[in-house]
Amino acid sequence: MSYIKRNSNYLWRIKKILLVMKLTLIAFFLCTLQVSASLYSQTKHFDLLMKDVSVKEVLKTIESQSDFRFFYNDELSDLNRLVSLDIRKNNVEDILIDLFDHTDVSYKVLDNNLIVITPTTLIAQQLKVSGTITDGTNNEPLIGVNITIEGTTEGTVTDINGNYSIEVPSKDAVLVFSYIGFMSEKIVVGEQTIINVVLIPDITDLEEVIVIGYGVEKKKLSTGATIQVKGENITKQSTVSAITALQSLTPGVSIIKENGEPGAGFKVYIRGAGTIGNSQPLYVVDGVPGGNIDYLNPSDIETIDILKDAASAAIYGSRAANGVVLVTTKRGESASSKANISYDGYYGWQNLYKKLPMANAKEYAALLSEARVNSGQPPLDFATLVPNWDLIENGEWEGTDWLDNLTVKNASTQNHSVNIFGNTEVSNYSVGFSYTNQDGIIGDPVASHYERYSIRLNSDYRVIRHSSNTFDILKVGESLRYSFTDRGGIGTGNQYWNDIFSATVASPFLPMYADDTDDPAYPYYYSIPWNMQEANPIASMVYNRGMNKNKNHNLNGNLYVELQPINNLKFRSSFGYSMSGSSYRRYVPVYDLSATSFNLENDVTQNMNVGMNWTFENTLSYNFNINDVHAFTLLAGTSAERWGLGEYMGGTNKNSLFDDLEHAYLDNTRVIYADGTTTMGGNPWGIGGIYSYFGRASYNYKEKYMATAIIRADASSNFAPDKRMGYFPSVSAGWVLTEENFLKDKIGILNFLKLRASWGQNGNQAIDPFQYLATISFENVNYFFGGDKSVVYTGGYPNILPNPDVTWETSDQLNIGFDSRLFGGRMNLAFDWYNKKTDDWLVRADALAIFGTGAPYINGGDVSNKGIELALGWNDRIGDFTYNVGVNLSHNKNEITSIANTEGIIYGPGNVLGQGTEELYRAQVGYPIGYFRGYETAGVFQNEAEVLNYQNSEGIVIMPGAVPGDLIFVDSNNDGVISNDDKVMIGDPNPDYTAGLNFTLGYKGFDFTMAGYGMFGHQIARSWRRWADSPQNNYTTDIFDRWHGEGSSNTLPRLTYGSHINWQYVSDIFIEDADFFRISNVTLGYDFKKLFEDMPLTQARIYVTAQNLFTFTKYSGMDPEIGTSSTNDNWAKGVDIGFYPSPRTVIVGVNLKF
């Protein structure tokens, strides 16, 4: 956390509230710069010509001409004595000698240009007390803490290192330590000469500001459902991505990693999935909209504010249907012109948390034989078919555990970041550099990795300062960010492009290497006689994924100018620009592994993307109040955005001149196609834009009653001219009940209670551009005229049916909640209830094949999300021991209310589990998005009698062809036949509940943090083998619970060799409880600054962190936190066919501040 920024934001409040301090901004800067008071008192000279004025008037004149501040008791009679002065070029000490010589008054010049004037008898008794003030949440020094002697106006403030020194009149004096945002402390001096104080954040003080979109507001005055996570809480978790750190901190926000591979993205659902299209929120970084924040290093982030309700997000209109994530990066607001430098670095070791237990070779042989016998076939003669069978049979070799061989032990992860902050009289700056490198835990020997370099530069320049020195008339600044990533990995897609799945299905009979060699290049052709399709899965992975490079560049930022002709009237203009570029190269050599796994000629794939977009925004805001009672904040603005300013080019060719990735470029390949061309392609990106007007009006009465109204009008080029304009209003209100006389101070434990209510509407226009037109494609439509095939003509065709009526997807949301603080601010409690309805989904319509072209987008469905959110926290201190506990819980119910077709169904794809069956998941009216659909089972038939007795209400035997060991499929419609009509909802991948836990402890220089999160009330569909068409696939050891005789099992059916409805039908035997709670982060640190206070550092913290330490779950797979499906459906999740798990990581790190 940047305390420099905290101090800059709140210094003016300190001056206003603590008038007795009488410190000005200039005095504070001089103090933090550690200017010597004695030197200043000798070098600063005065010219005074005064006649018949009081001593007090002389002191005030000195104050007005210098940085000196006097502390005295107004009742001191000598200060009313009249004097006359004619002084030329005298310093302050000479003047004070003239004033107080031969009187009963003495003075003392303190270290920070404060001069204490007291009776001589009091000066003689004064004692000097010093110490350090630190933040109880992270043990960092606090700058600008006020220390006063109770009952007097005497005091001082802490310097940039949190140090202070003050003289007190006696041992009975009481020191008062106060700081905005923290609870005050009172300590009797007694015999102490060193008093170190740890201040605890005062959560009853809601003066902190939150980011709300085009502005900020006090947390106390917020009427929407928002949540803010501070940068220090993100960096403490030592994660590669900032999104990861939010998982335990944000009620109502479900964050699911797409997979555990290095560099993998996340799916973020704010208050449930609102559509089967893109349900991801809008990300805005320093005012610039973007797609995600993966390119940001967590150390660059000052705050992340999430706008959850429609009223808060309405200011972003058509982009905000799924919520808004506002990211503010660190800026250089410093209390010192001296540059402040910090270094944060860690190195860690990653390992697989849990591995799937696979059947070994001997067990596998027994299972295959059993399956063949159950299918009426003889067992295989393994002694003849399998080389070295005697070693397997004698237990000397257990076969190849492919998943174990695929696993990387102690894969490394590291991050290093340097941040520099500082300012001058007219500017401030913040510069950040970071490097991240993470290796994968699965994919050995393929170099699965993610590498990121990032640079950040933020600065602000005060061009013209008002003569009152209270605000800037003209201010300019910029925020610039660049990142470069290099990523390589294994296949994590569907069953045909998933290397983990391939490892789980591979036969353990197949050795890792060819006979008499351990050559990792796998230069052999090996097959088992009865399975000519068997291939070494690791060899296939190396050949197909072992040589690829995926590089990405991301440059974005914004420039702004802010004009404030009068106080609180601001015009701001900003221009944001984002450019991304990517390149991908892949080389696949010649190989021959089996009858179906080979590549006769090497392949080179190369493609490049570049894209740009810009945003131009202008806002005018005015804050004013009437009689210090009625406060108004008005905002009006315009926004113009253009995207899709880019292009793609790529191609594939064969016969490279070089057998390596380094030279894998298309120019190094030889053309082999008959028409003399390579498979090259190039297209422009879909160009689009949006133009908007927006306004916001906020009002509060004595900070007791609050109201806000927002309107935004967006015009999107994605829709036809008469459908482009969309209007998105919102209203919200708040009421601080504890400011009412009937409640104020009436309930001792209740310190703050605010009720909130809001309604708003947001939109979504995320479809391909120009869908209201029949766009023309020229791809792969070449043709000939007549019989002459010597000339090839390029053709074109309309690739979609137009829909001029397609328009905005809209989301309406009602939110009611409250915020409270209890027990002297130690407890905070917040609650929200919401009802969110998303209408007019933007989806592809059903189109008959006779049209010969793609289906258009239509407004085709509605969904409802209803839920509650609860957050509870407790902060306290016992002596030097501080602690903080936070828990949050949210519940969401997702239900589709309408789909624009006669069936009310949008079908999912088939064969998701490798079964060769109908779809596993679908969208259907009356059900949650992406629910699992299949057959419900009632156990396993144990004998023939049970088969015959399984009848419907009319006495019809339901499964007459079944035999003992077969599954009992439930005849849900009671028609006496098991058919597609009997399929029901067998699972839901959408959690009913999400929860988070955060726990911190502090004791002197030690700090301890634990974070965890969980999801409950949802299911996973999983399958790690192809049951239907690959009978030789291996099994996980849960197959040991199968039926293999009467009474042996009532859950899993008998084994069969090849297709059988027991395993081919999608049923609830593939569905598992996915509830889990994960201890995601445990950190123990110590700041050696507390031990060696003289070291030239303000922080020297060393810490150890364990990530993904424990996961409490009944799920049998490697990771219960399953992300999106392996298909292209945005709305499908919770399908495990070989999910890349998150690693368990141990990290050692250091935080240094200079």
Let me know the number of strands: 62
Distance between the termini: 14 Å
CATH architecture of one domain: Sandwich
Helix percentage range:
10-25%
Mean pLDDT across all amino acids: 84
Q: What is the count of DSSP helices, taking H or I runs of 4+ residues?
A: 17
Instruction: Identify low-pLDDT runs.
Output: 1-38, 520-526
Shape: elongated
CATH superfamily of one domain: Carboxypeptidase-like, regulatory domain
CATH class of one domain: Mainly Beta
Computed Rg: 35 Å
Strand count, sense and barrel status of the largest sheet are:
22 strands, antiparallel, barrel
Oligomer: single chain
Overall structural class, as computed from helix and strand content, comes to mainly beta
* Percent in strands: 35-45%
Look up the CATH topology of one domain. Answer: Immunoglobulin-like
Explain how this protein is built:
With 1154 residues, the chain is mainly beta. Among the domains are: 3-199, Sandwich (Immunoglobulin-like), CATH 2.60.40; 936-982, no CATH class. Helix content is 10%, strand content 44%. The chain is built from 17 helices and 62 strands. The strands form 15 sheets. It has a 22-stranded antiparallel β-barrel. Strand 27 and strand 28 (569-588) form a beta hairpin. The chain is elongated. It starts with a helix and ends with a strand.
